[in-house]
Amino acid sequence: MGYKLEGKLLEVCDCNILCPCWVGEDPDGETCNTIIAWHMDKGDINGIDVTGLTIAVTAHIPGNIMEGNWRVVMYVDEKATKEQEKALLQVYKGELGGPVADLVQLIGEVVAVERANIDFTVHDGKGTIRIGSDISADLQPFEGPTGKSTLSDTVFSTVPGAPAYVGKASDYKMKQPLLGLDIDMQGHNAIQGQFLFEA
Fold this sequence. Notes:
By secondary structure, the chain is mainly β. The chain has helices at residues 82-92, 98-104, and strands spanning 3-13, 32-45, 48-49, 54-61, 70-77, 107-116, 118-123, 126-131, 135-141, 164-176, 181-185, 188-198. Strands 1, 2, 3, 4, 5, 6, 7, 8, 9, 10, 11 and 12 form a 12-stranded mixed beta sheet that branches.
């Protein structure tokens, strides 16, 4: 048993373009406040089908991303059954090992876990993420002279070998009192990518 998750990633943060965290540098404003969301186009966790569900985090990163100590609020798609929710949280809290555990070891504190209505759409590098009524972002990739997405084969991909469409969030709002955050900004860093996690 284990997990196999395949889908799309959306990420937005309050760093400028391009976010230095992606190459291990310190964030632009000394801290980084981000939304990261993973939508499962196909997914199985210990025999439990999680296809079509989304899990997301809002995070306050207090310094260099690789030093960890992230404080996060996790959001589980309200469409998930209790069994699906438990399975997703086992993966995204690092309890089942594998590549997701490598990422979530950077989390120092899970402040809360909430169920929420999560709207996740993505097409050709353009994406929208909405979590409840207080968290939202609209993402657009950088485009070349022909109108096609550029910067799609870069070191910025969180999944080796998978493309990451580097762009900007035309709109980024996040009210998260549990993390002390109230963000309303335009034109900051955004990434849309693909993932295949297996353990």
